[in-house]
Amino acid sequence: MTTQDKVNFSKYGKSFQEGLAALILQDRAFSDQIQEVLETQYFELKYLQVFVDKIFGYKEKYNVHPTDKILMTILRTDLEDETDAVKKQTRDYFSRIYNTDVKDEDFIKNTSLDFCRKQTLKEAMIKSVGLLKSSSYDEVAKVITDAVKLGSDSDFGYDYIADFERRFEIKARDPISTGWNEIDTLCRGGLGNGELGVVIAPTGAGKSMVLVHLGSQALLQGKTVVHYTLELQDTSIGIRYDSCITGVSLSEMHSFKEMIYEKVQEVPGKLIIKEYPTKSATTMTLETSLEKMRQRGIEPDFIIVDYADLLRPVTTSYKQEHRHNIETIYEELRGIAQKFDIPVWTASQTNRSGLNAEVITMESISEAFNKCFVADFICTISRTADDKVQGTGRMFVAKNRNGPDGLVFPMSIDTSKVKLRVHQPQAGDDLNTIVTRTAQEQKQHLQQKYKKFKQKRKTETNTTTNNQERDPLSNPLSKESLRKLAEETRANKEAQNRSAAQQ
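Request: output the structure for the sequence above.
Response:
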C-alpha cells in the first residue's frame, strides 16, 4: 500500500474524492457547475488531481466535454510529465470507474460545494502562516474571508419568469444631496446607495474641501458620516468641518471656540473621522473598520475616502503595472459602497496636464484612466492662478450614470471658510460646447473658422480693388496714392498696437 493510500481521510476522504472525480467525467452539467469553484489541488491524491486536470484542460481548450474514449487516449499519451507511479494510478483509476455508476451520487453532489469550501479554507490557513511572518494582516484577513465566502452566495441569478415582478420594482437610491442644486438636478438628487463618486483635481485645487463640503451636507441632513483621511490629520479635517458648517474663517477658529461648539451641537448627523497614515490602509482596512462600527451600533450612511490614490492595494502584483493596482482599489471601493448599500465619495489626482487647465477633462486623470469606468459620478475641479486670486473655479461633470454629463459650471470658492458654490453657466459661455467636442470635431471647427476667415479676406480684397478702380488716386504709380497708402498703413499699425496693449 502506498503512502497516499494510508492517508487518514475524514468525511471527504478517498471514497468521496474518487466519486467526485468520476462524476466530473460522467455528468457534464455537474462538471460545468463545479468547475467554477473547484481547483484540482483540492484533491489530496495526486492521480485524482491529474485525472481532473486533464478533463478541465480539454474543456478549456476545445470548449467541449471529453468523451470516455477521448479521455482514454489522453491518459495513454499525455502523461509524460508524471512519474511512473502516478501514470499507473491514474490509468488504474480510470479502468475502475469506466462504465461504473458512482455510489452515493446525490450525497456527493449536494456536499461538493462544502468540500471545496473546506479545502479552500485549509489552503488559506496554510498561506496565512507565511503572511503572518511578514505582518501582512490585511492580506491574511482577505485570504480567510474569501475562503469563507466561497460558494456562500445562494443567489443563482435572475429568473426571467419567476422574478417577473422585480423588473417593475423601483429600487430606492435614497440619494444624499450634494448641497448644489445644479448638480443635484443632473444626478437625480445626489449620490445614491451603492454608488461611487469621484472628485478629480490637481494638487491644491480643493479636493479635500469638496469632500468636506459633501460630508457637511450629509451631516446637516441627519446622516452618519465616516470620513477616512489618509493625508491630513483628523483634527485638521474636523476644523474644516467646523468652518464649513459655521461659516467661521479657519484663521479665526480659536476666537469663536464656544460659539462653534454650540452650533455643531445642533448638527443632526454624526461624524466619525478616522486617520490612517498615507499608504498604510487598504480597502480591507476600511471594510473592517466599518464592520466594527456596525458591531458597536453605529450604522454608517455616508463614506468619504480622502483620498483613494493614497490607499495601498490589498494584494500587490509585481507582474502588473502600478496603474492596474490603482484600478483595483477603485473597484474595491465601489464594492464597499454596494456591500454596505451607501454612497461613497473619494478623490483622485490629475496628471501634469491638468495643473493649469481651464477645464480638466478625464484625459488629465493621473495614473489609471480605467478607474473612471468604475465610478457612477465624476466631476473635476479646475483653478488657474487667476482663479485662486479671484476665488473662482470651474466644475466639469465628466461622468454621470443618472443623467447628462459634459457640462461646465462656474464656481465660487472661499478657501478661508471652506465654502464652495456652484453657479449656472453664464449666457454666452461656450465652455460647455468646447469641452464636449471630440478632437476631430475641434479640428473641423477650426478648419471651418479658417475657411470663413479666408473668405472674408477675399471679399475685403475684392472690395478694395473695385474702389481703387473708381478712385483716381488709386493709381499705384501716383505720388498721392503712395502717400495715402503710407498714412493708412501707419494708422492701422498704431491701432493694432493700442489694441494689443489693451488686451
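The chain has 17 helices and nine strands.
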